[in-house]
Design a protein that fits this description.
Largest sheet of chain A: 6 strands, parallel
CATH topology of the largest domain in chain A: Bifunctional carbon monoxide dehydrogenase/acetyl-coa synthase(codh/acs), Chain M, domain 5
Structural class of chain B: alpha/beta
Number of domains of chain B: 1
Largest interface: A-B, 24 and 29 residues
CATH class of chain B: Alpha Beta
Low-confidence stretches of chain B: none
Strand content of chain B: 5-15%
Oligomer: heterodimer
CATH topology of chain B: TIM Barrel
Shape of chain A: elongated
Helix content of chain B: 25-40%
Strand content of chain A: 15-25%
Distance between the termini of chain A: 90 Å
Mean pLDDT of chain B: 92
């Protein structure tokens, strides 16, 4: 026992609170702080009462149910009135003017959060290390009690300029930490004095503060510090205390743990790798002659996999290479590679894995001398000779990935670790595992139906040029551009809650066939600035979704044959409608709702919902042969499964029917089901 | 024939107060409550809403200002205080907009000087003040802190917040109770998104003025006009995130070819003409504040606004 024993927090708290009950009655004289418009800020914020004497002190103490923060604030104010302010370097009560500046830095982001350190460290060195880490992580730290002389003895410079503020000689001077939080809430958070609910909500959600406790606190001090939990601040101790809700952490972990608990994140600004890293390099390819080594692309086994882990399971920023590094690889050869990215984050979900995994492609291409194509176990990666000459190693791909994931997904991801495997045996073994995971994912997405979720997502990215266009994205109907799936919409909303992808509560079903929901209608009306009243998700004929101009495919009715045709952007020829794709696109784009026409994605054709309002895919009479070939591997089995083994061949293309007359003849000849369906109009 | 001013609008535009008189805790001779309109400008049957305000723009480093204005205003351009005073007493402006162009200097760091400039302008004019702050993200934090602090109590309008660069200016608004200009690049959705971001950080909507960005007439103003129109329609239809007053600054008018290359004799007239036409169009589109740089434009606009207000409707 180096001077201190182990203190039981629960017991100490009880004793401390008892002591305070007596102490508060001993207040006898009047007191007040200068340089503030907020009286005793904690008491004022909690109750709206201006405390300046014995009676009002007892009043707030009773009204707050014997709150230790209030008690200590009153006691300290009286003590300060009796004894005067402590001499330098102690700051004592800090004026409103300074708080305004502090609050400014908090809102502005130049300070990420607040920390309070109390107690007496066993070793000045370890206290100094903690403070240094807090400084490096842009935290503003307040100190009270024995930690201050301890830091001074270790040569640590103190003061507001150093972001280490010595409040006072006793641990209870941390009252001033709380009065700062209370004033910031009133000045910046719009909290009115006495509005305890808003104050607590502000403290818990907005005030990013943590408390670090060294040993040696008295019962009364423990009661006070424990009282800070009501504000949502985690209390972290370095040992010496047990019980209660205090978290014990090692000195090297304590700052990180506290910051993680409050969701305070240091943003990564530069990635320390010996090559440039920017979206500007994304389009640059590395040709065979420029390549130092390559991985995958059919020349060697390679795959990539992003997995979610539990926080604490991974060490942020850690990069591991298993197997030979680039300097022991032969120039111009292909080697096996596995890129394993592990991420953890409070808001991370397993569903996001594939979406994030797709970003590996972009990020590797951001590297000036690294190149990446395709996905999953089809990847093909190259590192250039130039990059190799600059010292780029395989390890640096990991650093790049870890850095970019943290940078681009700050809200989602708290920690990223990357493992790069070049050992052939281990890559092959890992690949088998990964393939299982790919299959599970495919099954999950395939298995998702519009009925399984109550929330769809909007996309209004294109309103820049199609002012009233609103895409409604459902699990079975991707955005009409084909680029944003329901999961992408969901993740985009998580990352940017005020962005172009917003959740839509679909609400009550109005028309099952057409897929019309009152929630969707409400949303679309608002998002289209009042222009569009109704929107059916699964119909081309009645209130179809609006079109921006990015659609992969246009579906339109052909009343002459009682069917629907589709035409894709790549097809330049004439269609049986008498119009080319580009003429059609000009007719329906710009955010308008055009009954009989719809802009859709290719994948939507393969969904069970396609043309549901018109009686189903049996309405499909024509599509360009190239699109037909592209969709064949999935469309044919799908039609077979629906009980139409011959429908695929009954769908005409430009070779079998170039004009509407030819089409009518063709459909008649093959006996297309659309001919006998309910009239479209 | 004037159309019926009632288009089924449901909500008024929000209000923002600029400037503070002695009674309100500041030192201005007047304060303005802008916004509050219930329909489009200049079509009310009763001329109840006030004319748009005219802000005269000055700067603290004329090397970054239009040579046309520098020549016209002469020595004044080296004395922001005297310039501001002239804007109030001689040019007849409603507001002064101080652009801290000195922050464009390479590695600018003289924050103290900025504070002195703001002080001298505040003491030289009694008009409410707009301050256009930092030109360099790296010094945003210090610049806006200094502006906010120096103007405490004066209810300044601080510019300019953009998506991705709004924290410092929002902090200054929150800490010292000023309002801010939120600028988006001619895009209604980005305008809305920025307002939401500002709301999330704690800036109240009655402290935000939208700057939809103003292209010069003939050089993209039609896009600005359309964005402004849609912002205002949305506001009147009840979209609270867009229901703020607007500010337009057709500063680009002074750099277009027709003005730049005009011969010395007609150069001023050309500058005024272009500023005037662009500002008037912005006012008609709904702007509550228009900012101009040529002294000659102020009177032209005043006369035009008065004429629009006094028309009988026949």
């Amino acid at each position: 026992m180096e001077g201190f024993g182990i203190t039981d927090v629960t017991l100490a708290k009880k004793n401390g609170n008892e002591q305070l009950k007596n102490k508060i009655t001993t207040i006898s004289r009047e007191f007040s702080y200068e340089d503030t418009a907020y009286h005793l800020p904690v008491s004022y914020a909690l109750t709206g009462i201006t405390v300046h004497n014995k009676n009002t002190a007892n009043d707030v103490f009773t009204k707050t149910g014997g709150n230790p923060l209030v008690a200590e604030e009153c006691l300290l104010a009286e003590a300060t009135a009796v004894n005067g302010k402590e001499p330098e370097p102690y700051t004592g009560f800090i004026s409103d003017t300074v708080i305004r500046k502090l609050g400014y830095s908090l809102v502005d982001g130049s300070i990420l959060g607040l920390a309070l350190i109390v107690g007496t460290p066993k070793s000045a060195e370890s206290a100094a290390a903690i403070c240094r880490e807090l400084q490096e992580k842009y935290m503003l730290t307040f100190l009270s009690g024995g930690v201050i002389p301890s830091l001074s003895s270790a040569g640590v410079k103190l003061g507001l300029d150093y972001r280490l503020v010595p409040l006072g000689s006793r641990p209870l001077h941390s009252v001033h930490f709380v009065d700062i939080v209370a004033r910031v809430a009133m000045m910046f958070g719009g909290v009115s004095p006495g509005d305890i609910h808003r104050l607590l909500a502000y403290a818990a959600e907005r005030a990013k503060a943590i408390v670090i406790v060294f040993p040696g606190l008295s019962d009364e001090e423990i009661a006070f510090i424990d009282g800070l939990r009501v504000l949502g601040f985690p209390i972290l101790s370095l040992g010496g205390y047990e019980g209660g809700d205090w978290i014990v952490a090692a000195p090297s972990e304590i700052v990180r743990t506290g910051m993680e608990m409050k969701g305070i994140k240091v943003s990564v600004t530069a990635i320390p790798i010996p090559m440039g890293c920017s979206p500007a390099f994304e389009g640059k390819s590395i040709r065979k002659e420029e390549m130092q080594v390559e991985f995958g692309g059919g020349r060697s086994p390679a795959f990539e996999l992003l997995r979610m882990k539990n926080p604490g399971e991974i060490e942020d920023g850690k990069v591991t290479v298993i197997g030979p590094e680039i300097d022991s690889m032969k120039e111009g050869s292909a080697y096996p590679l596995a890129i394993l990215v592990d991420v953890a984050g409070k808001t991370m979900k397993k569903d996001y894995e594939p979406v994030l995994e797709r970003r590996i492609h972009n990020f590797v291409n951001y590297g000036e001398g690294s190149w990446h194509v395709a996905q999953r176990d089809l990847i093909w990666v190259r590192i250039s000779k130039e990059a190799f000459a600059k010292g780029v190693k395989i390890e640096h791909l990991g650093k790049l990935l870890a850095g970019k994931f943290r940078m681009d997904f700050p809200k989602l991801i708290d920690a990223v670790a990357v493992t790069l495997i070049t050992d052939p045996e281990k890559v092959l073994a890992g690949k088998k595992e990964a393939e299982k995971i790919y299959d599970e994912r495919d099954a999950r997405i395939r298995g998702m139906h519009d009925d399984d979720v109550s929330t769809y997502y909007s996309c209004t990215l294109c309103q820049t040029f199609a002012p009233n266009h609103v895409c409604v994205i459902t699990p079975e109907r991707p955005a009409l551009c084909g680029a944003i799936s329901w999961l992408d919409g969901k993740i985009a909303y998580e990352m940017s809650p005020s962005g172009a992808n917003q959740p839509i509560e679909k609400g009550a079903l109005l028309n099952a066939g057409n897929g019309e929901f009152d929630g969707v209608n409400r949303f679309v009306k608002k998002a289209s600035h009042g222009e569009i009243e109704r929107c059916s998700l699964y119909s081309v004929m009645e209130y179809p979704m609006t079109c921006c101009g990015c659609f992969e495919v246009i579906a339109l009715m052909l009343p002459e044959v009682n069917g629907i045709m589709v035409v894709n952007r790549e097809y330049k020829g004439m269609t049986p409608s008498g119009m080319t794709f580009s003429t059609l696109a000009g007719t329906i784009g710009g955010g308008a709702q055009t009954p009989g026409f719809a802009g859709i994605s290719k994948n939507y054709i393969l969904s069970d919902r396609f043309l549901q309002g018109e009686g189903g895919i049996e309405r499909l009479v024509w599509m360009p042969s190239q699109l037909k070939e592209e969709l064949r591997p999935r469309l044919k089995p799908m039609l077979e499964a629906k009980g139409h083994p011959d429908l695929f061949d009954k769908i005409a293309d430009e070779n079998t029917a170039a004009t509407i007359e030819d089409l009518a003849v063709f459909l008649e000849k093959v006996g297309h089901p659309a001919l006998t369906m309910k009239p479209l109009m | 024939m004037i159309p019926d001013a009632n288009f089924g609008w449901t909500s008024p535009v929000g209000e923002v107060v600029l400037g503070a008189t002695e009674k309100e805790g500041g030192t201005r001779s007047r304060s303005y409550r802008i916004g509050g309109g219930t329909t489009l400008p200049f079509i009310e049957t009763e001329p109840e809403s006030p004319s748009p305000l005219i802000a005269f723009e000055i700067c603290d480093d004329p090397q970054y200002w239009s040579p046309i204005i520098n020549d016209f205003c002469g020595d004044l351009v080296r004395d922001p205080g005297a310039w501001a005073k002239t804007a109030e007493n001689t040019y007849g402006a409603d507001l002064v907009r101080l652009c801290l162009t000195s922050t464009k200097q390479r590695d600018f760091s003289n924050i103290t000087a900025l504070g002195k400039t703001v002080e001298s302008v505040l003491s030289s004019t009694t008009l409410p003040l707009i301050i256009e702050g930092s030109n360099e993200p790296k010094i945003d934090s210090e610049v806006f802190l200094k502006c906010g602090e120096t103007g405490q109590g004066e209810r300044l309008l601080l510019g300019t917040a953009e998506a991705g660069r709004y924290r410092s200016i929002a902090a200054a608004a929150l800490a010292y109770n000023h309002s801010i200009i939120a600028q988006s690049p001619i895009d209604i959705n980005l305008a809305k998104q920025l307002n939401i971001l500002l709301k999330e950080i704690g800036v109240q909507k009655d402290h935000i003025v939208i700057d939809p960005y103003t292209g010069a007439l003939g050089y993209g103003f039609e896009y600005s006009y359309s964005a402004m129109e849609r912002i205002r329609f949305s506001a009147l239809k009840g979209d609270a995130d867009l229901a703020m007053p607007m500010i337009c600054a057709p500063a680009d008018s002074l750099t277009i070819k027709e003005v730049r290359e005009a011969d010395a004799k007609t150069r001023d007239a050309m500058a005024v003409e272009w500023e005037f036409a662009t500002s008037l169009a912005a006012a008609v589109a709904g702007s509550e504040i228009v900012c101009v740089r040529h002294p000659g434009t102020v009177k032209r606009l005043k006369a035009a606004f008065a004429a629009l207000k006094n028309r009988t409707g026949a």
